[in-house]
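Continuing the series of single-chain predictions for the mutant panel. This is the parent chain; the variants come on the following pages.
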Amino acid sequence: MILNDEFVIEISHLTFRYEQQNVLEDINLSVPKGAFLGLVGPNGSGKSTLLKCLLGLEQPDEGSIKLFGTDIKKMKTWYKVGFVSQKANSFNSGFPATVFEVVSSGLTSKLGLFRFLKHNHKKTVLDAINAVGMSEFVNRNIGDLSGGQQQRIFIARALVSDPELMILDEPTVGVDSQNVQNFYNLLEYLNKERGITLILVTHDIGTVSDKVTHVACLNKHLHFHGSAHDFDHLKESDLSQIYGHHVHVLTHDHSHGGH
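Parent structure:
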């Protein structure tokens, strides 16, 4: 994916406080169109808070956020933003909905709550399911799928509104290691072939570094923001300083099917 000078996200001097404590402090972060950004940092570093600010769910105490060049407070085109959460603990697996129904619910932001699906919308839903390699499960109950399969369906749900930006909050929690690799390959495809700008919050620094184009390392402050190549060449001592404890980086060579 060719990166250009157009920024999908522009965060300027963002500070967020919770009960008089700074959770995020003077964050400046720009994400170019077509980037695949890995957002890493220790637990409690402010990653989830930053996502909530990006999604308009929390208001920063200072600073500003622009999405697609528009101040977030004036955003009308939220369907351009897809979000995939940590499915694992929040999803009720007994929920009686088929894969098709779950994915089609992702059109609500475009169609409105009670609009019926027209033929072209049904095609859009089926295309999204096909894009994540789950066509054969279209009529299966979502609760009957494995964790990895469910996460693919939630990506399809985010894809169905044809987003330009997709934000994923530790989406591989509860997914076994074999499926994690397939999952990252899918994200790489969405970024490179579909041109979707991706932000992935992850704990798996090593796995992410060969898929992403950029890395941002957060721990209240933005300690590092640059290319994946530069991140790979940080010393372990630098990372340990950011994390506040020793960090050992495992890198994976997926290009040759290795682990």
